[in-house]
Amino acid sequence: MRAHAIVIGIDSYTNPAWNLTGAVRDAVAFARWAITAGGVDPQNLILLLSPLSDGPPLTELLKADQGAPDMSAQAKAATRASIDDALYAYRKGAAKDADRLWFYYAGHGLAAPSQAPDAGPIIVPTDIENIERYVETNPIGLEIFRGWMENSKPKEQFFFIDACRDVLPTSDSKVLSQQLLWDVRSVDDDQLAIQNVFLATTAGQRAKEIYGHGLFGRALLAALRGLGPELRPPIAPPVAGQLVFRRLLFNDLVRFVSDAVKRAQKDLLGVQQGDLKGVPYARVNRLGGDIVLTEFRADSLPTASLGALVEPENARQFARIEFIHWDDDRGAWTPRTMNPAPMGPPVPEVATFQVRGGSHHLRITADGFEDENREILVYEDKRFPIELRPRSEGER
What is d(CA 317, CA 113) in angstroms, rounded to the nearest whole number? Predict the structure, then answer.
């Protein structure tokens, strides 16, 4: 598979009040995924970045890592001119010989005036000084670019947009509306691309950051590495001696990332009920069946480290931790015997397991304590506390 990628990440703006902390890190992580698992030759990577708003210099972030080459040679400033040049080149066929295009944007975004709720946002380059003037003159609308690419190659296109989609108040009663005009008489349906669009939040809402990453980008990047979403089996049995691969489908990625973002929002400090409206939004133009994003060898699927901190101390001597699943044949929740196997009694202060990504149900039991059932969504290494409560005298 021949693939190209356009990756844009903007933390630092001319107006420092607009600065972000996670956009560049997430964009670099996506670019690194693109030139490894995403099938992109580094020569076919467009990487447009601002400086980091905090932390080490950008050059440190771009160094070789996890089998991916140094990306310093690909990185350019995410200015208005460089973004315009990149998008124009692809409109004019820069990827005409490719099978797939990856597009990733992390930074500030605004809902385009008068466009539909499913439209991509206006993006804000690093060198914009006056946001109102920019929006009222000739802003860069991702929906316009997507529309231009709709009857352009490559045949499969993916747009991941980790940006806010809130609305900029206007100073008067007029707004500039961008529109792409088609002559549909000359459009051949067979020439239209399959476009998969995944936006970090719904129209009118803001995307959120935590721990130096966007909530959306954090879950998306984990999912692309195979941690979290359901991985589908091969379509047909393999030939003897042939490697077996599990498939990551676009719809499964969307379901997982949307669920992960909703859960993560609820854990943010000071989150208001109205903030929970900002959930990811996805659509597919010209559906062509199951869309496989990438594949993973079945004998080396990725795992994460899961640590359970069991309290109180005197419960650990009698505690047992089991991962349970629903057994259709028995019609009951049944402990798994492996992947991972049960632990205890006793259990250590931090009971550590290597687990596949996704939703796991745990049952923790200990003599003299109430049973504890816990669902954990795993897509990165994590630790979580388990506080067991003593049984009352009447329950013993």
Answer: 62
Q: What's the N-to-C CA distance of the chain in angstroms?
A: 63
Phi, psi (rounded to 5 degrees) for 194: -85, 110
144: Cβ contacts below 8 Å, ≥ 6 apart: 178, 180
Q: Is 19 exposed, middle or buried (0-12, 13-18, 19+ CB in 10 A)?
A: middle
The one-character DSSP state at 317 is: G
Q: State the Cα–Cα distance between residues 318 and 366, nearest whole angstrom.
A: 5
**Under 8 Å between Cβ of 120 and 158:** no
d(CA 360, CA 307): 13
**Exposed e or buried b per residue across 359-381, where buried means at least 16 C-beta atoms within 10 angstroms of its C-beta:** ebebbbbbeebeebeeeebbbbe
Asked if residue 42 has pLDDT above 50, the reply is: yes
Q: Which of 177, 173, 199 is nearest to 114 (CA)?
A: 177
Cα(236)–Cα(232) distance, rounded to whole angstroms? 11
What's the per-residue H, E or C state across 51-97?
CCCCCCCHHHHHCCECCECCCCCCEEECCHHHHHHHHHHHHCCCCCC
Per-residue pLDDT tens digits for 337-367: 998 999 999 999 999 999 999 999 999 999 9
